[in-house]
Design brief:
This protein has helices at 43-50, 73-79, 96-104, 112-117, 121-139, 155-168, 185-201, 213-219, 237-241, 244-249; strands at residues 5-14, 17-23, 26-27, 32-36, 58-63, 66-67, 81-83, 173-177, 205-209, 222-227, 230-235. The protein is α/β, with parallel strands linked by helices.
């Protein structure tokens, strides 16, 4: 079976800095895979390449049988890749519900005149969007916050809302950039369970950047390790835990 995502010698340089070099990964449909590495290793740059924020200096990205190189981020979202950000990016001045509803509009079918005149498919599609957005909020335990401004939510809830919003674009592949950052151990545990659950329920493939090793080792089937922009190792959590190069890269930290 062809992988859902496959990159080949993907590289990105900023002036003299080789942020990502020969990044070769594959993801099969339904897999939950980790991407780890010390600070500055190139993890977020890799996500930015996969989502069209940056154009690769060299290399290829195949997703679901199509090349993504040169496509704008919104096109890539439409093809089925959604992401969350290391620094949460919500629409602060919108309500929790509207943050999710906006994301559904990637798939809306009514035309602009229908929306302006509030006729045709507009009414029925808007009702459906609201219903689906409320369902998503309930999965993420945010139903009673739906009328709050996103900026008023505590940090852990903002992180969950960002994932809910990413799911609203109905992706095949979800890229999570440090979803547990700033969470306490209890919140991290709940998040781990939630990530495993949404993967099954929404039939997702997930690529996860995370510094919390217990989270990565606990839920990922395979892990890629980057260091100084290069792939240092790739394997199962057990293989990565006992890889001497990886242990060295983390300066003796428990992996
Ligand atoms: N837009 C940019 N312009 C110049 N250099 C950049 C840019 N984005 C990233 N870099 C550099 O590329 C390298 C990789 O950065 P990147 O943010 O991808 O690492 P990371 O693994 O995500 O790190 P962290 O774990 O700290 O988030 C770093 O040296 C960084 O300074």
């Amino acid at each position: 079976m062809e992988p859902l995502l496959k990159t080949s010698n993907l590289s990105k340089s900023f002036g003299g800095i080789k942020a990502v070099q020969d990044f070769n990964i594959y993801l099969h449909s339904g897999e939950l895979v980790g991407l780890i590495g010390p600070n500055g290793a190139g993890k977020t740059t890799a996500f930015n390449l996969l989502t069209g924020v940056y154009t690769p200096t060299t290399g290829t990205i195949e997703f679901d049988g199509k090349s993504l190189v040169g496509l704008k981020p919104y096109k890539i979202t439409k093809l089925g890749i959604a992401r969350t950000f290391q620094n949460i990016r919500l629409f602060d001045k919108l309500t929790v519900l509207d943050n999710v509803k906006i994301a559904y509009h990637y798939h809306i079918k009514y035309t602009l005149p229908e929306a302006i005149l509030r006729i045709g498919r507009y009414g029925s599609e808007e009702e459906l969007v609201e219903k689906k957005a409320i369902e998503l909020l309930s999965i993420f335990n945010l139903t009673d916050k739906k009328e709050e401004l996103a900026s008023n939510l505590p940090y852990g809830q903002q992180r969950r809302l960002e994932i809910a919003r990413a799911l609203a674009v109905q992706p095949k592949l979800l890229l999570l950039d440090e979803p547990a950052a700033g969470m306490n151990p209890q919140e991290t545990k709940e998040l781990m369970d939630m990530i495993s659950w949404i993967r099954k329920t929404f039939d997702l493939t997930i690529l996860l950047i995370e510094h919390d090793m217990s989270l990565v080792m606990g839920i990922c089937e395979r892990i890629y390790v980057l260091e100084f922009g290069k792939m240092l190792a790739h394997g199962t959590p057990d293989e990565i835990k006992s890889n001497t190069e990886v242990i060295k890269a983390y300066l003796g930290e428990e992996v």
